[in-house]
């Protein structure tokens, strides 16, 4: 030790070197500690990292949940598709039952009592419209593929009766309509018209007695009938 | 004396040097462990965007749940309502079997053969006039030889046969009608049946406590008709 001090004492240069190192270290230390306060403490960074991790976990769970909910919505929406099928089925039965107001192309057959002046020998009863004239036209239109029938906008249903009383027709028990009577049929206009106009057909049978005219139409509107209120009829076979 | 003091200075200097070295090493070790400034900023901004996304996801989850609830409830209600409407309209349309009290009408061509006898065979118009009388007398459902009478049922001659619902039917014709048996029978007896008998057709009308009507079996195919647009 004594030898060393003596040596150092002798060698002032060594001491100078030591102080140089000391100075550099102090300077570095000073700079480092100045930098320190601007960084987060390790605890804070760790806390942030934990929060991020938790948030990531929650995010993942929610994403999964939302995805499965989306699939469920898609499935349910698809199932609503069969509601449309139900709606189509309902519309068909409503058309046949006559409980839906309908429209479409077709023909209009106008019937009226004969306008010609009658001679004394002619029976005037022959020249007014009878139930069966109307029934004949309706029947022909059905056979020709009519999809719905009406008279002056009133719906002809399965149980619609035709009663010609003087210048009026009674139908659907409570409805009374006046001449001229327009029998309406929705369907293929050409097919309906041709069927009535067949040689020896409905037009030929009626034209000598009453006034009959047939015209096709792009849009015929027929009202819905009142839904039936059965007193005797029950569904099923009993 | 001076030579003795030097070792103390050296000692102090060495101590400080040692201390500084230790601190220096610890500080720089800590500096390496601590995340750099950029990483902390990144964590914070990541947390912020994650939180925002989570909020969005929560909102979507709630709205999806609401939608499912509505779809499930609405779907079930709509489906039940539709099925009930379909069943009612099928029945009204004549597309289901149906039964009730009423009458059975048997109508046959005049017996015997001879000149002009075929002129008074039962024709389509006889049948649709008969159906019209039954309807006017309050019939609620009718079938002709197993064919249900609907709004679109034709009764029409095709050659010498009568076709109903596109099916040929043959005499004797059996007409079943559900309604008030007394009213239906009386209405026919006092009207069209008398005319038929004058033509020598065979007509029997019996009141029945129960007749069963078959369903309409034609395919429902509509190409021109559509529901009127709701106003």
TrEMBL record, chain B:
Alphabetical list of Pfam families matching this protein: DUF881 (PF05949)
UniProt entry keywords in alphabetical sequence: Coiled coil
Entries under InterPro entries matching the protein: DUF881
Keyword Phosphoprotein: no
UniProt entry tagged with the keyword Coiled coil: yes
Coiled coil: 40-74
Family according to the record: Belongs to the UPF0749 family.
PANTHER family according to UniProt: UPF0749 PROTEIN RV1825, UPF0749 PROTEIN YLXX
This protein's name: Division initiation protein
Source taxonomy: Bacteria, Bacillati, Bacillota, Clostridia, Thermoanaerobacterales
